[in-house]
Amino acid sequence: MDKINGAVFKEMLISGCNNLNNRKKEVDSLNVFPVPDGDTGTNMSLTFNNGISEVKKSGSESLSVIAKTLSRGLLMGARGNSGVILSQIFRGFQQSVGDQEELDVQAFNKAMLNGSKLAYKAVMRPVEGTILTVIRESSESANAYVEANPECSVNEYMDVLCKEAKASLDHTPELLPILKEARVVDSGGSGLVSIFDGFRAYLMGAPIMEGAGTSETVKNEKASGYRTEFILKLSDQGMHLFKEDKFRNSLSRIGESMTIIQDDDTVKVRMNTMQPGEVLNLGQRYGEFTRIQIDNLNEEQHPSIIETEPEAPAEAKEYGIITVAAGKGLVHLFTDYRADVVVSGGQTMNPSTEDFVSAIRRINAEHIFILPNNSNIIMAAQQAADVTEDKDIIVLPTKSIPQGLNACIAFNPDADLETNRTQMQEAVDNIVTGQITYAVRDTTVDGREIHNGDYMGLKEKDIILTCRDKVEAACALIDQICDEDTEIVTLIRGEDASEEETEAVRQYVEDHYDVDIDVQNGEQPVYCFILSAE
Q1: pTM to 2 decimals?
Q2: Is the pLDDT of residue 216 over 50?
Q3: 245 CA to centre of own chain
């Protein structure tokens, strides 16, 4: 093939997306740390599916329109650092495409190089041995091939790009020792290779179908289907039974592009699905609908009830706070600490750029602080700030729940902006975070042998201990994060910890340290205990 037009590019994108969807669990499994949060493949899949969904809805066969629509869809749907970087690759690609309606090999090559360049610019401190390395080395090698063979076809270019991307991916363990120790390649780079391989498969006349070669078949029609939205008033029993994380997991099996917002006894849901009736059945278990809207995504789009029918406009104020948490107890805790919106998410479900933008729209404030509370969410929060023009958005790079809570506590609605920024950052810097979670596979990290089922103690992001008992692990971790200067210890109980286990940890702190101890029931998933010392 000598040139790529809009129709061809669209089919390449769909084939690439299908290949990524088919391999997302494999990509997830490449997570270096053996914690139950390997979600790079899922994040990249959700990000790319959002872009493809927007392309399909546009109905356009114009290359320039498709490239622009894809870029916007990826940007708004970006989840996790890998998803944000992926969105920047195709943003750079689109900028190079501009108004062109056909790409010869020279133009396609130039667009890929620009995608690599923009992805590097998006990361403050680029790390080699990651998806960044894979896009840079593969696009540069393919560029060298084009320069040496200017008459080559697009198919030949794609052969080289895929070959060099795979070679770069295979080399990532040599650039990042932690990958080599865990005996895995970079997960984000693996996701990118899947997309490129899907592009190549279409050009070879064998496009990838979703579900092909996998035990999990999810029909591609989920990207179309019906946009299903409802506002649900929780009953008294529903208030007791409703768990947002479990509800999200149930809905994720039958749809995508999901937004869930809970405000006390009201739940608002928007998602794309082929089974709107099943979505409504799941919701009706918890209460009564006050509004339902179902739109066919293949027909003219209708306004969103979640966005166009908000509650009474909030009174204008100087400051607003958006934070991220998973677990009903943590949501209430942040709300008590002046957070205006708590975006659902955390370690196992990173919110998208659009989730943050939607949260920003709900706050009538001049200055809005965003507290991501997870290192893999910071880039999506920053991307939301970048696309918001009418409000001043300040992203404090909080990397844990305790950091976010401390920032909220330090916030003073009567202080000026710089004073708040400084005091909130100082509060973040003045706390040590510990977390207890469990291993989902056997591996070695930093020379430490870890076995499936072990409880692991994390100090900040480092695994510093393992044992077979969660209480013993928590007590040992307390000894690692506390010192003679510690004055306050906070213990946040997760959904997998019992009251008796929590009391045992609390008693250990009281017996061994002269500190004030604050115990909260966060009900968070993944981490049975979250600890902090200050």
Answers
A1: 0.79
A2: no
A3: 15
